[in-house]
Every structure is written in structure tokens, then in C-alpha cells.
């Protein structure tokens, strides 16, 4: 069967068709929500109070500078959006369809992770940090809860970062 691809701009997220699925997490600066559209595309929507607009703008700018780096979460829109009738702003990011590193570690319930997983995860984290540091950025909140995992696109590998 022939697959038909849309000739749609990948940078345009149609707010009007999006529906919230669930809250993925909350932090001191705001929350991240899973949202989707009728074409089954999923996005992570990071929302924070408007007084933190500049922080969110800075985070988006960094994501855009590293657009297409395989170890850094990608922005799905080049804008910081303002929410109607609220005092919030938000950005769209790619959705990590698996979970955080913290959640994965906790699922092992105190048992050691297999060595191959530790090697792979450490390598990918270091590759992302190397890219950031090469451009004089420092990740100031690096912890397992902030490292997100994706289903792997490599046969036999369970996760991508």
C-alpha cells in the first residue's frame, strides 16, 4: 500500500486541533503535558507562568540552536506561545514516548541495570553534554528525572535518548 505524506510545514503546530491527553510532569517552573492531534502526532507542551517567559524563550532558543542533534530534545515550533485567558506561556517539544531515566531505574527496584544499558545511556548523555559544552552551554539541572527516553529506532535497542 502506498503511503501518502502530507506537504505540511513541520514547524506549524495547529493549536485548534490539539487535545490534552495527560500531565507528564510538574516542576518548579511549570508543567509538561502530552497533547495530540487527529493525525496521531504527539507533542510535549511545556507551560509556565508568563513571568517566566524569558526563561522559556531561552530554553527554546537553545533547542533551536541544536536542531536535529540526536541527543537533545527538539522543539516542534520556533515560537513561545501565549495561552488565551491565562497568564501562561508555552512551547511545543518532541514527545519522549517512553519515560524518564529516573522511572526506568526505579523499575529495576534496586537491582543493577545491565552493563550494556549503562554504557549506552552514559554515552548518549555524554554526547549531548559534549554538544552543549562545545557551544559554551551548561545544563544546570541534570538529573535522571530530566533525561528522557524514546523508543529506539535501532533494531534490538530498547531506548533512544
Explained architecture:
The chain has 161 residues and is of the alpha+beta class. 25% of the residues lie in helices and 24% in strands. It contains 3 helices and 8 strands. It has helices spanning 53-65, 101-107, 115-134, and strands spanning 19-26, 31-36, 42-49, 81-82, 88-94, 99-100, 148-151, 159-160. The strands form 2 sheets. A 5-stranded antiparallel beta sheet has the order 1-2-3-5-4, covered by helices on one side. The two termini are 32 Å apart.
Order of helices and strands: EEEHEEEHHEE
Distance between the termini: 32 Å
Helix content: 10-25%
Topology, number of strands: 8
Strand order of the largest sheet: 1-2-3-5-4
Kindly state the mean pLDDT as a whole number?
84
Report Rg: 17 Å
Strand content: 15-25%
Structural class: alpha+beta
Large-scale geometry? globular
Largest sheet: 5 strands, antiparallel
Low-confidence stretches: 1-9
Tally of helical runs:
3
Amino acid at each position: 500500500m502506498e503511503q501518502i505524506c502530507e506537504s505540511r510545514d513541520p514547524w506549524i503546530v495547529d493549536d485548534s486541533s490539539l487535545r490534552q491527553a495527560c500531565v507528564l510532569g510538574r516542576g518548579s517552573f511549570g508543567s509538561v503535558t502530552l497533547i495530540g492531534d487527529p493525525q496521531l502526532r504527539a507533542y510535549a507542551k511545556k507551560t509556565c507562568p508568563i513571568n517566566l517567559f524569558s526563561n522559556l524563550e531561552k530554553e527554546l532558543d537553545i533547542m533551536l540552536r541544536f536542531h536535529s542533534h540526536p541527543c537533545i530534545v527538539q522543539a516542534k515550533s520556533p515560537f513561545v506561545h501565549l495561552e488565551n485567558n491565562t497568564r501562561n506561556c508555552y512551547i511545543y517539544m518532541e514527545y519522549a514516548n517512553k519515560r524518564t531515566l529516573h522511572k526506568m531505574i526505579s523499575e529495576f527496584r534496586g537491582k543493577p541495570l545491565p552493563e550494556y544499558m549503562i554504557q549506552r545511556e552514559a554515552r548518549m548523555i555524554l554526547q549531548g553534554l559534549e554538544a552543549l559544552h562545545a557551544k559554551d552551554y551548561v545544563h544546570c539541572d541534570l538529573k535522571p528525572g530530566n533525561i528522557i527516553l524514546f523508543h529506539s529506532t535501532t533494531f534490538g535497542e530498547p531506548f533512544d535518548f
